[in-house]
Amino acid sequence: MMQVKVLLDPTSDSQVDGVSPDLIASATHRVPLSGVLKVTEEKTARHGDVVLVKVKKINTDYSLLETLDGEEKALAGGELMIGVLGSRKALHGFSGDPPPELKPGMELHLLNRGGVIGECTAFHRDLGWPTQLEYIGTVSWNGGPANLQDYALPLIEDPALEIPVVLIVGTCMNSGKTAVCRQLLRLFSDKGFSINAGKVAGVGCLRDTLAMKKDGAGEILSFQDFGLPSTAHLETVAPIARSMVHYLSKSHPDFIIIEMGDGVLGGYQVASLFEDKKFMDCCMSMILCANDLMGGWGAMQWLSQQGERKYPVLISGRVTDSAEGIRYIEENWNLPAGNAQESTGTICTFILESLMPWLKSE
C-alpha cells in the first residue's frame, strides 16, 4: 500500500509539509487513500465523510481498531487516525450519530472497531464511555470532502438472476449468525458447491466478510460496498439487498448466503427487508439464530405477522448450544433446529432439501 500523508494546511501542496496518519480504519477500504491528501475544516457532517481525528482518551475495554488489512491494532493516545462519520445503534455496544455540525477540536467518539465515528448517544454499561477523539478535519478528494458514496457500487433495479438465497437472521447481535454462516460455507464449499456471500445490514467492519471469504465464499460483498458506514440511518435495506444479490448472481453460484447484522428488530432496519416481495421471493430458506427460547418464539410470532411465508425456517444460534434447546424447539414448534458445530448433518440436510426445488426448475 502506498504511503499516505495528510496536509493539515490545505493551502500547501508540499509533501514535506504532510504528516503520516498512524492508523487508517477499515471502514475507509473502498476509498483510494494514497499519496498526499489535504484535510479541510468542514462544518457539514455527512454519513460516510472521511475524517482525520486524534485519539484522546481510550476506553481500555474497547481499545482496538480494525485497519485496512483486517488486522486489529491497539490504539494509543495522541495517534492520528482516519475514519468515517456514521451511525451505530448497538444493543450491546455503543450508539451514536454524526454531529449536527463539525468544529475543529470538537470531541467525537469511536463507535465501533471498524472506525465509524460520531457523537455517542448511548453506551452499554459493561463497556462504559467509548474512546474519545478530537476532530482535526475532513479529508479532501477531487476538490471536495471524500465520502464513501463517491466510491460505491451503483444500486441495481434490474431483475436478478434466479439464484437461490439462504437468509441468515438473528434475534440480536451475538446470537450466532456469523458462526452458522461460516460453517455453511465450509461444509458446502468442501463438497464442491459454488457459494457467494454478503452482509446486508449492520455497522462497518471487515471481520465478518473476510471470514466468509476465508471459509469458502467465492465472492463477498457488504453494505459498505454501497457507500454506507452503517445501515442505521436508512429507511429500508431492501435496495441494498436486491442489488447485492444481483452482483453476487453474476458468477452463477449454486446459491448465495445473505447475513443480516444485529437482530430482526433493532436500529439497522433489518425488519424492512421482509416487506420487500422482490427480495423475499428469491429466499429459498431462512436460518433464524436466537439466544434463548423466548427470543426465538417471539421472532417466529413476528414472522407470522408478515404475511405468507414461502420459505422453510431452521432455528440455530446459542439457543441450540444445548440439546435441550433443540429438543424443545422440535417438539413444541414443529420446526427443525440445529447447532452450527454439533448438528452439521441436520443443517446440511435442511439446505439441500430447500435447494431441490430450485435445481429441478433449472
Question: What does the model show?
Answer:
By secondary structure, the protein is α/β, with parallel strands linked by helices. The protein has 2 domains: 4-150, no CATH class; 165-361, 3-Layer(aba) Sandwich (Rossmann fold). Helices cover 22% and strands 25% of the residues. It is built from 7 helices and 19 strands. The chain has a 6-stranded parallel sheet, sandwiched between helices. The N and C termini lie far apart (44 Å).
Summarize the SSE layout with pairings.
Layout: E1 4-7, E2 23-24, E3 35-40, E4 50-55, E5 64-66, E6 72-74, E7 80-85, E8 88-89, E9 95-97, E10 107-110, E11 116-122, E12 132-141, E13 144-145, E14 165-170, H1 177-190, E15 195-201, H2 207-214, E16 220-222, H3 238-249, E17 255-260, H4 277-280, E18 283-289, H5 293-304, E19 313-316, H6 323-332, H7 344-361
Parallel strand pairs: 1-3, 2-7, 7-11, 14-17, 14-18, 15-16, 15-17, 18-19
Antiparallel strand pairs: 3-12, 4-7, 4-12, 5-6, 8-9, 9-11, 10-11, 10-12, 12-13
Q: Strand tally, please?
A: 19
Order of helices and strands: EEEEEEEEEEEEEEHEHEHEHEHEHH
- Note the overall shape: globular
CATH topology title of the largest domain? Rossmann fold
How helix-rich are the residues, as a percent range? Answer: 10-25%
Tell me the strand percentage band: 25-35%
Low-pLDDT segments, ≥5 res: none
Q: What's the CATH H-level homologous superfamily of the largest domain?
A: P-loop containing nucleotide triphosphate hydrolases
The first-to-last residue Cα distance is 44 Å
Radius of gyration: 21 Å
Helix/strand-derived category reads alpha/beta
Mean pLDDT: 91
The domain count comes to 2
Give the name of the CATH architecture of the largest domain.
3-Layer(aba) Sandwich
Spatial sequence of strands, sheet with the most strands? 16-15-17-14-18-19
What characterizes the major β-sheet?
A: 6 strands, parallel
Our count of helices gives 7
CATH class of the largest domain: Alpha Beta
